Predict the 3D structure of the following.
Amino acid sequence: MAGKVPLFSIEASNRGIDLAGAFNRVANSNWFILGNEVTSFEREFAEYIGVDNCVSLANGTDSLELALRALDITPGDSVALVANAGFYGSTAVNAIGARALYVDVDAASLNMSPAALRELLSCENPRAIVVTHLYGQLAAIEEIVAIAAQAGIRVVEDCAQAHGAMRGGRIAGSFGAIGCFSFYPTKNLGALGDGGAAVCSDQVIAQKLKMLRQYGWNTKYSVELSGGRNSRMDEVQAAILREKLPHLNDWNSQRRAVARRYNAAFNDLPVTTASSVDADYVAHLYVIRVRDRDSFRACLGEQHIATEVHYPIPDHWQAVYTDRSVSPREHLPVTERSAAEIVTLPCFPGMTEAQVDRVIESVYAYFERESAQ
């Protein structure tokens, strides 16, 4: 029996990275919070994204919440976002006490639909829009930002799955007022634990973010902003990210190469594949849509091919909303239909040709078995 094909390999993703050197730099510095590694990473990551400021944070969810707070979103305000992105954006909105207004997604990309956003804005007036670049696929961000600008609404980009996704020479995180990132270990740029960042070119917003990540202080022990907390990235994670950042574009290319092989192989099968395999897609997750997902996953599991569902329950269907009015637009047909069909296949840097072959062969085996029944 051939070996298992994992959904993601930490070992493969960290191969060739000088982890010990990064640890030793921090240990020898005897400075562990908000030191040189954090300052250097913030500068280097801002340069990579093409913005003026990067404020490192404890995790990606804090990044989304503090970004909304930096835009002065308060309890009772409303925020427009999608309902198919794992509840992370919804968690940030709910933490503030704001109201989530869910927008349906585009049938091809599964990212926010500009047409659905226009429809929402015809009857609602959100204070902000959170746009998730789901699975590493850049949303129709230029159109969404233009729609938002016309309505006087700020846009927050959720780039947790889209490190390095690019269109027209601009990188995810540089289009909206703030770009939010997670550096969870499985991300395209992953730390060895939790980590996050918010990027922007507005100095006032950047200063608010720096205050919010440390209790709301304007100076030590003097609290000016409400909603602050301890959300500092530690020096070790920053050092690791500095080691990894120069490899990000190559890793993204490796991910896209796997996705291209899948798209070509599955072209004649009854599945919906990734809508793009160009630079605007960094293949954080390779997601297809299959009519009988449970049967499909069971078949691949028998062949020791790992799969997952990102994400099985749309946000507006989550139990937390049972006794709460979410939005007058609770029916999201594309979101709801796709939630029953999506399945994630292995796709990661360092994935071998043999592993890709095994995934493709297993997918074909499933459909051959189905057609024979």
User: Anything to note?
Assistant: The chain is about 40% helix and 15% strand. The domain at 10-246 is CATH 3.40.640.10 (Aspartate Aminotransferase; domain 2). The chain has a mean pLDDT of 96.
